[in-house]
């Protein structure tokens, strides 16, 4: 029945079944048996190149590829060649915007330049990430978001919140960040480009190009989190709300604002 299904003649099948192995197959069998002995001798450490040298030293006429192919047929893998496990990194968008901001942190009116960055805070369950967007005019944190995953979705969440809160004219706005993959993602760049926002990015390895965001995170950790015990992720988010919304924006006096809070400074417009 199988011969009929596979369209093979009965005589052809029995001829193949009773056929003597070819000289090449016999030679491969002898070489494979030799390689298995050498594998045991080397305790599974030797790779195909060293086993090939052993074969040559014992009179076998073969090349490295043949040895490698035979080792693959019985699933041999050197113990010295450990597989590397980890997260597969996605392909990055190679778009890197110029540093249009150029450390010009003094701004004449609101919703002209926003700066953004992401930091991480150690929590009981692991890292929790905080993304902020700051208006350079008043140093006010116009939006923020937290997540246990550092991704472009965290930036998008902050951007949507900032846009709903401030409703800026995109053509008059510059958005500055570092060159992190979150800010270079397709979703973030599409969102900004659609709104005609000018995208600016810090130079590689120059944290001072985004000094205002870095300074905010330093203050947050020194003034607030350093005085708290280790928090859960939910507690960390709650503490961020206390610091940013209730203290930093409303109460904390800022040196570059002549000693007033960001909310007070904006109310004088």
UniProtKB/TrEMBL annotation:
Organism (species): Shewanella sediminis (strain HAW-EB3)
Short name of any one Pfam family annotated for the protein: rve_2
Integrase catalytic domain mapped to chain residues: 106-269
One record GO biological process: DNA integration
InterPro entries listed in its UniProt record: HTH-like_dom, Integrase_cat-core, RNaseH-like_sf, RNaseH_sf, Transpos_IS3, Transposase_IS3/IS150/IS904
A GO molecular-function descriptor: nucleic acid binding
Annotated protein name in UniProt: Transposase
């Amino acid at each position: 029945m199988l011969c009929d299904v596979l369209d093979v003649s009965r005589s052809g099948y029995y001829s193949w079944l009773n056929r003597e192995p070819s000289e090449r197959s016999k030679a491969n069998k002898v070489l494979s048996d030799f390689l298995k002995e050498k594998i045991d001798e080397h305790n599974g450490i030797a790779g195909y190149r060293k086993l090939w040298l052993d074969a040559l030293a014992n009179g076998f006429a073969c090349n490295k590829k043949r040895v490698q192919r035979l080792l693959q047929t019985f699933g041999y893998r050197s113990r010295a060649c450990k597989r590397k496990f980890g997260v597969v990194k996605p392909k990055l968008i190679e778009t890197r915007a110029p540093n249009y901001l150029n450390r010009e942190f003094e701004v004449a009116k609101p919703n002209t330049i926003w700066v953004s960055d992401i930091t991480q805070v150690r929590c009981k369950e692991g890292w929790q990430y905080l993304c902020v967007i700051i208006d350079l005019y008043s140093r006010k944190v116009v939006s923020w978001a937290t997540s246990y995953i550092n991704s472009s979705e965290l930036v998008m969440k902050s951007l949507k919140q900032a846009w709903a809160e401030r409703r800026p004219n995109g053509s008059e706005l510059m958005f500055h960040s570092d060159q992190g993959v979150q800010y270079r993602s397709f979703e973030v760049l599409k969102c900004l480009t659609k709104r005609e926002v000018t995208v600016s990015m810090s130079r590689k390895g120059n944290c001072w190009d985004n000094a205002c965001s870095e300074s905010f995170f330093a203050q947050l950790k020194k003034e607030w989190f350093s005085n708290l015990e280790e928090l859960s992720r939910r507690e960390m988010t709650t503490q961020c709300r206390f610091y940013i919304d209730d203290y930093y924006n409303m109460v904390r006096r800022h040196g570059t604002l002549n000693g007033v809070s960001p909310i007070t400074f904006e109310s004088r417009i």
